[in-house]
Specification:
This protein is of the alpha/beta class and 226 residues long. It has one domain: Rossmann fold (3-Layer(aba) Sandwich), CATH 3.40.50. It contains ten helices and eight strands. The longest helix has 13 residues. The chain is globular, with a radius of gyration of 19 Å.
């Protein structure tokens, strides 16, 4: 009997918790904060919500970090942005990437950090005036932190913050690691980087952004605009 009670209790604890149902009228009254983007970025992103998950992925040496840094810089024009360089750290190679992306050294709204435990990140985001947008580079490093519901838990705890995850590409051209694949299903915006060009799609207008026109032309040739 005792074992049965323990088993029933365990089963009860593992049951998923669902949000209460709401009527259409309440759905329409919900307030959402629009994300401000400008210029060519607005052409592909439109007017998305400030919150949820975006995913950037691609093969190594194709411009993921370069593109991510330029996007972080653009978003920091209106928001506080935290870029976690979990894979490279803040070593010379990462500094060189920032120089290559020509980031403005006077920009105080874009800050960088090394890998930190998930609980430490949550503590940081709980503080007043914490970052509005968080880049996590790379999902592979955070695989253990974000699996088993960790990713959903993070975004549910901070619904008004945008998490932009960066992932490698597997042998099938898909985001690498189970967490990255889950992120791709949850993402409002998907960005695939190949040959210094980023293809943007998802619940947005979509399109292509060129990271470096000369190098992208060398890679893509006449297909640059496709």
């Amino acid at each position: 009997m005792e074992n049965k009670a323990v088993e029933e209790n365990k089963t009860s604890e593992e049951k998923p918790k669902f949000t209460r149902s709401i009527p259409i009228s309440k759905l329409y009254r919900q307030k959402h904060k629009d994300l401000v983007v400008k210029d060519a970025w607005k052409d592909v992103f439109g007017i998305p919500e400030l919150g949820g998950i975006w995913l950037i992925w691609g093969n190594e040496k194709n411009g993921k970090t370069w593109y991510s840094l330029k996007l972080a810089e653009h978003l920091s024009e209106c928001y506080k942005v935290l870029y976690i360089s979990a894979e490279q750290g803040l070593r010379k190679s990462f500094k060189d990437a920032c120089l290559r992306a020509k980031l403005d050294p006077k920009n105080k709204k874009l800050v960088f950090d090394n890998y930190m435990e998930l609980e430490e990140l949550k503590d940081k985001l709980n503080r007043r005036r914490s970052a509005d947008i968080i880049f996590i580079d790379n999902v592979s490093v955070y695989q253990d932190d974000l699996k088993y519901g960790g990713l959903r838990g993070l975004t549910n705890k901070f619904p008004h913050k945008l998490f932009i995850l960066i992932a490698h590409e597997d042998e099938k051209g898909q985001p690498y690691t189970a967490t990255a694949k889950m992120a791709s299903k949850l993402s409002e915006v998907l960005m695939y980087v190949e040959g210094l060009k980023c293809k943007v799609y998802g619940r947005v207008p979509g399109g292509s952004l060129i990271i470096d026109e000369f190098k992208a032309k060398v890679y893509h040739g006449n297909d640059l605009k496709n």
